[in-house]
Amino acid sequence: MMALSRADTSTLGRWWWSVDRWTLAALMTLVGFGYLMVLAAAPAVAERIGASSRNLFFAKQVMFLAMATTVMAGVSLLSPKGVKRLALLGFLGALVLTIATLLIGAEVKGARRWLNLPLIGSLQPSEFLKPCFAVVAAWLIAEAKAAGRRAWVPWVIVIGLYGFVAVLLQRQPDIGMLLVITSVFLAQVFVAGINMAVVTALGGVGVAGLFGAYFVFAHFRDRMNRFLYPEHGNNYQVDVALEAFGAGGIMGVGPGEGRMKTVLPDAHADFVFAVVGEEFGLLVCLLILLLFAFVVVRGLMRLLAETDLYVILAASGLLTQFGLQAFINMASSLHLIPTKGMTLPFVSYGGSSVIAIALGMGFLLALTRKRMSRAEEGPL
């Protein structure tokens, strides 16, 4: 790719000279960490649970990350209009499949979030709702801002869609996913310049919803109580994770030399950051943190020169989702917030999660590409 000339007018040539290569490099570095960390943590987990092969999770994640990289690259070729169309189709498909989880989904730990599909295996449709809803909501809010007297029509639609998604996630239940989608929606409403009183009111509804969830959902109440009163609950995973960070120190104990992953149930997924801390130390943890921060800040900087409100809102929502998910995972591992089963983007093990994140980052790369004229957007 480095040999491509600026005069190259092929699809690949135009993509290479218009895509944000710094963001792409940061994302691919995170994918590289994903390969490294699943190699470090997954065999121990597979051995502990008696999987058919010690390398089962590693082999699967190699395939998932390869698929994710392909999805991200392919989607980044789209024009903003193409992103809008794909997101709308993806949102409708994910919505139907999320409804299906409530009817025929596999129940795990009291929640129905997964479908067991032929050939595909386990699928969590709500993961795909996050990036697709961010784009669809951005499109509708932008339409509302440009609609004049009939602005209420797209507002009714987008608020109705958000409410429907919120009800579905509440029924699963998946409060963490609902929190992320709500935060993304509120961020987009704020960026759109909506009256602060409206934003505050919506935020108040969200806070009230969290209080309601505390009293309605036993598992949510249990996690909050274990965080607020650790001496009265079982905080085994968090305690082991903190021990892992302490054992790793500044430089870590060395790749493959960690011991906590052999007793940490979700070492390859929700608590992979603790494995990073033990084996690679504080410096590599900070590097990963900086990579996530770089993607978010770089993306926001690219939007400063953007004039299309739809692009601004969609990219802002995707960046909010990406940064917030990374923060929730790392902060949970460090016991800074209540534990939440949310993966670290591209680093944690997971099929639905990593491919959905790749879809969202493909959307972001497509939206933040340099576009000199409408003609350069192409038919997609």
From TrEMBL:
GO terms for molecular function: lipid-linked peptidoglycan transporter activity; peptidoglycan glycosyltransferase activity. The keyword ATP-binding does not apply. Its EC number is 2.4.99.28. InterPro entries: FtsW/RodA. The lineage of its organism: Bacteria, Pseudomonadati, Pseudomonadota, Alphaproteobacteria, Acetobacterales. Pfam families: FTSW_RODA_SPOVE. PANTHER family: CELL CYCLE PROTEIN, PEPTIDOGLYCAN GLYCOSYLTRANSFERASE FTSW-RELATED. It catalyses: [GlcNAc-(1->4)-Mur2Ac(oyl-L-Ala-gamma-D-Glu-L-Lys-D-Ala-D-Ala)](n)-di-trans,octa-cis-undecaprenyl diphosphate + beta-D-GlcNAc-(1->4)-Mur2Ac(oyl-L-Ala-gamma-D-Glu-L-Lys-D-Ala-D-Ala)-di-trans,octa-cis-undecaprenyl diphosphate = [GlcNAc-(1->4)-Mur2Ac(oyl-L-Ala-gamma-D-Glu-L-Lys-D-Ala-D-Ala)](n+1)-di-trans,octa-cis-undecaprenyl diphosphate + di-trans,octa-cis-undecaprenyl diphosphate + H(+). This is Probable peptidoglycan glycosyltransferase FtsW. Belongs to the SEDS family. FtsW subfamily. GO terms for cellular component: cell division site; plasma membrane. It is found in: Membrane. The chain crosses the membrane at residues 21-46, 58-79, 86-108, 151-169, 175-194, 201-220, 280-297, 309-328, 348-367. It comes from Muricoccus nepalensis. It is an enzyme of class 2 (transferase). It is a multi-pass membrane protein. Keywords: Cell cycle, Cell division, Cell shape, Glycosyltransferase, Membrane, Peptidoglycan synthesis, Transferase, Transmembrane, Transmembrane helix. GO terms for biological process: cell division; peptidoglycan biosynthetic process; regulation of cell shape.
